[in-house]
Amino acid sequence: MDKQAQIVNLREIYADVMDYKDLEREKEKLEAERDGVSEKYQKEIEQNARVAQDQGEYQKHADELAAEYNRVDAEVKAVEAEIQKRQSCGRRIETLVVALETAGEDFTVSLWGSMVEKVTVFKDALVFTLTSGEDIRVAPC
């Protein structure tokens, strides 16, 4: 195992995982949209308090705005969850890099083999079975 090559590779993966500026921009856009819907909803409530109007129509419009708010809010939360997932993955990669950097030069294929009994590849994850019997599931970032 070329430890330095693995460290370089992991740092490249880390850079890719932690590059989520596009998600931050999407989140900001969605938050602005959500705020706009919230403002419209608040104005609807204020107008209903000031001006007599058909309550059935008011309620229909208010329900539409509430549904739109909930839809956009769910999208914001989905983007936030993806950002958190990437941050978590980045922390795992950082931990692995530190472990490799501090392992010393005696970190070899045979040492790896003495720690890892097998690796099972699934469509959505890898499962490392350690010689201690412990399974470590690693989902893709």
Structural write-up:
With 141 residues, the chain is mostly helical. The chain folds into two domains: 101 residues; 34 residues. The protein has four helices and three strands; from the N terminus they run H-H-H-H-E-E-E. The chain has a three-stranded antiparallel β-sheet. A hairpin with a 4-residue loop joins strand 1 and strand 2. Helix 1 packs antiparallel against helix 3. The protein is elongated, with a radius of gyration of 25 Å. It starts with a helix and ends with a strand. The relative contact order is 0.13. The model has no long low-confidence stretch (mean pLDDT 87).
Main attributes?
3 strands; elongated; 3-stranded antiparallel beta sheet; single chain; 141 residues
